[in-house]
Amino acid sequence: MGDDAVDVVGRLHSIETFGTVDGPGVRLVVFVQGCPMRCAYCHNPDTWDEVPADAPFGDQSGARPGTPSTVAHVLDMFERNRAFYRHGGITVTGGEPLAQPGFVGALFEAAHSAPAGRVHTCLDTSGAAWDPERPDRFERLLANTDLVLLDIKHSDAEGHRDLCGRGPERPLAFGDELARRRIPTVIRHVVVPGITDDPDELAGVGRIMARWDNVVGLDVLPYHTMGEAKYEALGIPYRLAGVEPMDPGRVPSIRKRIMEARAAALGR
């Protein structure tokens, strides 16, 4: 571990001390501030502000800083409750963690070198802030990442732009990089009725999965409206107003559709 790792400062939105849905086991979940995408169903719009929606990737000008926190502070929170995390670890989500690769990379490196024992690290990301022209910015992070939860927002390029305000090029390029490095990856897909539950769209998710042999799982996440009140409080129009939550009972059939398309693409 570099001597400077514990002193690196990140911009955080919040920290959840007992996370059970963002990686294996019970985890310390760190929510970073800032995201370049504007997904219509995002339930954390209060994490957007660090990176303006129309800013070039990597441009932090004019952005609000979030709450400054050092790597040492986050690790201290973990160590104080290490007994609860013995089958879990640390997950960084957001916002978009790849928008702060220096902080997340230093945190994961320090977690791997923790004096009381190595800590499992998990990155929950859309891949939107990956910069294929500057992969060196992410080397420390990816070299110390044990698991990635990668969101595939929409399998169709135009559908992705409509849903998220950005195309899928960078997320797909990031997925390619994870496959090249053979970092275990779980694909996540939020299913929104009438938007991301079309059979062809779901089959497209399966075909995307088939291109990466490092994929170890699939999470089908039913769309919900629990974040809608945040939009009202923030004065942000909620683009999916009126869309009903997805019936969780549909998850098995949706998962089957995706996995069948993956198998077909692999010739199985």
Helix content percent band? 25-40%
For the biggest sheet, the summary is: 8 strands, mixed
Low-confidence stretches: 51-64
The span between the termini is 43 Å
Class, according to the CATH hierarchy? Answer: Alpha Beta
Counting structural domains, the number is: 1
Percentage of residues in DSSP E strands? 15-25%
Summed up, the helix count is 8
Instruction: Order the strands across the largest sheet as they lie in space.
Output: 3-1-2-4-5-6-7-8
Order of helices and strands: EEEHEHEHEHHEHEHH
**Strand tally, please?**
8
Radius of gyration: 18 Å
Give an account of the 3D structure.
By secondary structure, the chain is of the alpha/beta class. The protein has a single domain (about 5-265), classed as TIM Barrel, CATH 3.20.20.70. About 30% of the residues lie in helices and about 20% in strands. The chain has eight helices and eight strands. It has helices spanning about 70-80, 100-110, 140-145, 155-165, 170-180, 200-210, 230-235, 250-265, and strands at about 10-20, 25-30, 65-70, 90-95, 120-125, 145-150, 185-190, 215-220. It has an eight-stranded mixed β-sheet with strand order 3-1-2-4-5-6-7-8. Helix 3 (about 140-145) links the parallel strand 5 (about 120-125) and strand 6. Helix 1 (about 70-80) packs across helix 2 and helix 6 packs across helix 8. The longest helix has 15 residues, at about 250-265. The protein starts with 8 loop residues before the first strand and ends with a helix.
